[in-house]
Amino acid sequence: MPDTIPGPTTVPETEAVPVAANTRGGSLWSDAWHELRRRAVFWLSAVILLLAVAMAVVPGPFAALSGPERPCDLRMSKLPPAGGALFGYDLQGCDYWSQIVHGARASILIGLAVTVFALFIAVVLGLLGGYFGGWADGLISRITDVFFGIPFVLGATVVLVAFPGRGIWAMTLVLVVLGWTTMTRLMRAQVIAVRDADFVTAARMLGAGHLRIMFRHILPNAIAPVFVLAMLNVGNVIAGEATLDYLGVGLQYPEVSWGLQLNTARAFFADHPHLLIFPSLFLTATVLSFLMLGDVARDAFDPRLR
């Protein structure tokens, strides 16, 4: 049998297989939204928070649910829920439902304002320290450590007692001074993790300036965990503000807040429990909604937790 020399093998050309398009947008934020809208906890928390914010912004329509607003009457003082009064009456004989609705404004406003200002400080200091490093990072880190070591309630109590003329904006300033450190440390860590990435190096080699690199390339890829922490922080700030009001070192009358209502009701809980129960329910639902929203956002932004 004669030997045969095999010729070169020709491989048949195959048809190109089309790649499925990414129907989920491809970005971290679009993927996170796709994940969030599938979670019942997200929608429950969002509805509760929308109602709380609406009560803070336009309390009138919500207060009108108990009927036309009546003048306070001391003869109705501390009466339980009955008739047209959904939640009964407070110590001055005012409709308690209306007082709780108006009390949402101070708590929600302080929680959101403190978080926005603290987030701004965290983004600026975290970007500067994490991107440039060196003495700037060392200075920012040491200042952050000093403020991080101050106990929250004790530090706020000392400052607020020293300045007795305290309103909503004074409370906001004190809570911002004591509440920016955790987000700053997280922002710095995220910037350090991103600053040496290939796309940042490529932008630097193409001649992009420091500001463009920080705000166009690093910030969008480092802000997601800090944004999640900020949502959790709103609930913590509202709880902290209510704690200071309850201890008597926070807001003072004639301001209205859930913490002040708890402070007033503590001496009458045995005989008039509704004075303590109703503001506690509203405060707990609001804080818990912010915490649950932060938890589901953390799961959505972290692919490892899906």
Q: What does this 3D model show about the protein?
A:
The chain is an all-alpha fold and 306 residues long. The protein has a single domain, classed as MetI-like (MetI-like fold, Orthogonal Bundle). 66% of the residues lie in helices and 0% in strands. The protein has twelve helices and no strands. The protein has helices at 28-36, 40-57, 59-63, 96-132, 134-148, 152-162, 168-179, 181-194, 198-205, 210-247, 258-265, 274-301. α1 (28-36) crosses α12 (274-301), α2 packs across α4 (96-132) and α6 runs antiparallel to α7 (168-179). Residues 1-25 have low confidence and may be disordered.
- DSSP strand tally: 0
Uncertain regions spanning at least 5 consecutive residues? 1-25
CATH evolutionary superfamily: MetI-like
Order of helices and strands: HHHHHHHHHHHH
Q: Which percent bin holds the helix content?
A: 55-70%
Alpha plus pi helix count:
12
The CATH topology name reads MetI-like fold
**Roughly what fraction of the amino acids lie in strands?**
under 5%
C-alpha geometry: elongated
Between the first and last Cα atoms, what is the distance in angstroms?
65 Å
For the CA atoms, what is the radius of gyration?
27 Å
List the domain count as a whole number: 1
- The helix-and-strand class reads mainly alpha
What's the main sheet like? none
CATH architecture assignment name: Orthogonal Bundle
Mean pLDDT: 82
CATH class: Mainly Alpha
